[in-house]
Amino acid sequence: MKMEHMKKFFHEKRIFIIAAVILLLLAAVIWLCILFAGQQDRQDASVLTANEKSSHLTVSSEQAIASEVADSTIDSANADVSIVQEDSSAAGPLSSKTSSAAGGAGTAASKPAASAHEHDWTEHKAKRWHENIVTVEDVPAQTKKVQTYHLYWWDTKKWQDTTDPAVYQQWSCEKIGWMEEYDCAIPPELSQGTDENGNPVYLNDHSIITTYETIPAVTHEEDRGWWEEYTDYLYCRGCGLRLSA
Q: Domain-by-domain residue ranges, the chain?
């Protein structure tokens, strides 16, 4: 009966029992994580403390070495001054003058001397354009013969000036018909009377006037300049100093 009762109990409460077991497992995992993190922090703190001690020892050692070097330099300088003073006292007045002169020379020598430098001058080249505008002839100038036709139209009784040969050709054809129609070579309205001998004078019904016209050349402009190479300045290869050319 007890076994059946326990089985029934576990069967009814199995969900709660499983949940309790999972919670216990999670608590154990969390506790282990906290324990591991604490150990890691203690190790990091130990390493940091050791590094600080080592850094402190290094600084102290460097300070001690610097102090010893400074003391040694001061002792050496004091010894040199003592030797100079003893030699100066033994030499007397002449030695004193010599010492003064040497001191002046020493003062002058103590000034930083200008570094000796012989300039290596080099020419810097540049280019410039020289403009040269010229007129180029594409088509040369021409002299053209021009004929102007001064025509009298018999039918309209009007004059016309034209340079069109086709118009003159048309007028010539028309004149043949007019001569047949009017039975005369010159229209009567162009009569100018008679000359001194009594001969009739007529104004010519046409004239051809020849002139000569000059047609300008066709041109354009071009820049036919050239490049010139020249020295615009000098520069030192060593220090870069520049001088105007």
A: 2-72, 121-134+222-244, 142-215
